[in-house]
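User: structure tokens for this one?
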Amino acid sequence: LIRREKAPAEKIFVLKNAVAPPTAIIRRPRPKLIGAAGRLVGWKNFSRFLRLAAHLSKLDPDYRFILAGDGPLATDLKTEAQRLGLGERILWPGIVPNLEGFYAEIALLVLTSDWEDLPMVVLEAFSHRVPTAMVSNNAERSRLNSEALLLAPEADEAKRSEERRVGKECR
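Assistant:
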């Protein structure tokens, strides 16, 4: 910013992402409950999450899904979920101010956004010891190959669900 935008150095502050460790890690994941969380906006690409959910449901009808959050695309995403046949398989809790209960219940967190490097939802999931899968579309995420299941960005949802067997991480 200082060089490119000519911003005065004294006005630039770096705020690093920080996650307070949970007071206690209580994990009682519901088998085959896969979650995502965030503001329901286009660049988060929750449509990808819904398509992945639809393909996983075809592989195993016991999968269930939860999408925590709210935003301008909430109605469109719920309509898309119905169109994809997810119906009662997906929970929509809306805004969840404290995600500790969410992390305690899910067997896997899926990050589907194309734009974010390493968002808070992933850092929080790691701190709660939640297995995490994410589309590996940038250098920052690619470095996490031992911490997360990295999904190929060029693969479609059917290929991801069948070849990567995300369900193995949820058993």
